[in-house]
From TrEMBL:
GO terms for molecular function: GTP binding; GTPase activity; structural constituent of cytoskeleton. Tubulin is the major constituent of microtubules, a cylinder consisting of laterally associated linear protofilaments composed of alpha- and beta-tubulin heterodimers. Microtubules grow by the addition of GTP-tubulin dimers to the microtubule end, where a stabilizing cap forms. Below the cap, tubulin dimers are in GDP-bound state, owing to GTPase activity of alpha-tubulin. It comes from Tripterygium wilfordii. InterPro entries: Beta_tubulin, Tub_FtsZ_C, Tubulin, Tubulin/FtsZ-like_C, Tubulin/FtsZ_2-layer-sand-dom, Tubulin/FtsZ_GTPase_sf, Tubulin_C, Tubulin_CS. This is Tubulin beta chain. SUPFAM superfamilies: Tubulin C-terminal domain-like, Tubulin nucleotide-binding domain-like. Dimer of alpha and beta chains. A typical microtubule is a hollow water-filled tube with an outer diameter of 25 nm and an inner diameter of 15 nM. Alpha-beta heterodimers associate head-to-tail to form protofilaments running lengthwise along the microtubule wall with the beta-tubulin subunit facing the microtubule plus end conferring a structural polarity. Microtubules usually have 13 protofilaments but different protofilament numbers can be found in some organisms and specialized cells. It is found in: Cytoplasm, Cytoskeleton. Pfam families: Tubulin, Tubulin_C.
């Protein structure tokens, strides 16, 4: 698996060759510029990538070394700062342009509802979502506050580090791609996942979860079963983003199990979940929960499961960011930092409109019923025309 690290702040990548991850990836695929850091601005991040065209050859070389079996790309980035939002989304756009037939999956860390370290996070996130709607196929939505809550409440960690948060994300990433790397009874891949999870092109933002989540030292006392994994992976408190699935309805969902287990038992558990919680699933998409089983469990576990859900409740996160964006943009606060980097005010207006349209679409399909066929088809036509 190829890996490329990019960071606009030149100090950070210089630490990697001397850290614990120094053997992961080739040093030529860690890029650091010689100009000043991004200053938390999307505009600076966008400008900087235009200065790194020659470095694109590194990604090309890695791609062609394994082009026969590359199903797609995974991009991990944060939407609050300048690097992940500006440079990250433009890199995604560039990859989409060069390799339009490959799947683009992102693991995107959205601004947290309460904890913020950058005042312009709403600007950066809204401008980023504007790009992700168009250029990403599958976007796994994460936020640090939800990850911290899992560490405190479920894992019983008194002082979780970013390493603990990253471990949760890495377990989810590993679960999503396990069927690409290991044999299984019911296989899945990035494209099959997208086909089953995305009923409408723009609605490709997913909630994710992982099971088992247990306090350190207690794993040996817990007997893992398929029902236990199922209960935990569907638990609203274990979702890795600050949106409650109980406030919306699932359009689709996917459950990826790992370990020695019966596919019959997995199917029965998925049916039970849908029957007991039918009000949380739209009735106009039948059989909307996909399952897969990989024979090889994660290291240190006998079995595990990864959850990916396309829920209309994800609009809570978009609505919150949009309200924060509007409050600042109405007063043109901090706008000069972006226009000074060559951005236009119209880009902000378009991004705000796109975000509001996305929220409206999720709400439309949350309220839709099987009897709304005429209005439903009309809405689909409008989406495709747009």
């Amino acid at each position: 698996m190829a890996k490329t690290d990019t960071e606009i702040n030149a100090k950070i990548p210089h630490v990697v060759p001397h850290g614990s991850c120094r053997q992961v990836g080739h040093p030529m695929l860690t890029y650091a510029p010689t100009f000043p850091p991004e200053g938390q601005s999307v505009g600076r991040g966008l400008r900087n990538l235009k200065l790194t065209v020659e470095d694109w050859s590194y990604i090309d070389d890695e791609f062609f070394c394994c082009s026969v079996c590359v199903p797609g790309f995974q991009v991990c980035h944060s939407l609050g700062g300048g690097t992940g939002s500006g440079m990250g989304t433009l890199l995604i756009s560039k990859i989409r342009e060069e390799y339009p037939d490959r799947m683009m999956m992102t693991f995107s860390v959205f601004p947290s509802p309460k904890v913020s370290d950058t005042v312009v996070e709403p600007y950066n996130a809204t401008l980023s979502v504007h790009q992700l709607v168009e250029n990403a196929d599958e976007c796994m939505v994460l936020d640090n506050e939800a990850l911290y809550d899992i560490c405190f409440r479920t894992l019983k960690l008194s002082n979780p580090s970013f390493g603990d948060l990253n471990h949760l994300i890495s377990e989810t990433m590993s679960g999503v791609t396990c069927c690409l790397r290991f044999p299984g009874q019911l296989n899945s891949d990035l494209r099959k996942l997208a086909v089953n999870l995305i009923p409408f092109p723009r609605l490709h933002f997913f909630m994710v979860g992982f099971a088992p989540l247990t306090a350190r030292g207690s794993q040996q006392y817990i007997s893992l079963t398929v029902p236990e994994l199922t209960q935990q992976m569907w638990d609203a408190k274990n979702m890795m983003c600050a949106a409650d699935p109980r406030h919306g309805r699932y359009l689709t969902a996917s459950a990826m199990f790992r370990g020695k287990m019966s596919t019959k038992e997995v199917d029965e558990q998925m049916i039970n979940v849908q029957n007991k919680n039918s009000s949380y699933f739209v009735e106009w998409i039948p059989n909307n929960v996909k399952s897969s089983v990989c024979d090889i469990p994660p290291r240190g576990l006998k079995m595990a499961s990864t959850f990916v859900g396309n829920s209309t409740s994800i609009q809570e996160m978009f609505r919150r960011v949009s309200e924060q964006f509007t409050a600042m943009f109405r007063r043109k606060a901090f706008l000069h930092w972006y226009t000074g980097e060559g951005m236009d005010e119209m880009e902000f207006t378009e991004a705000e409109s796109n975000m509001n349209d996305l929220v409206a679409e999720y709400q439309q399909y949350q309220d839709a019923t099987a009897d709304d066929e005429g209005e439903y088809e009309e809405g689909i036509e409008e989406n495709y025309e747009a």
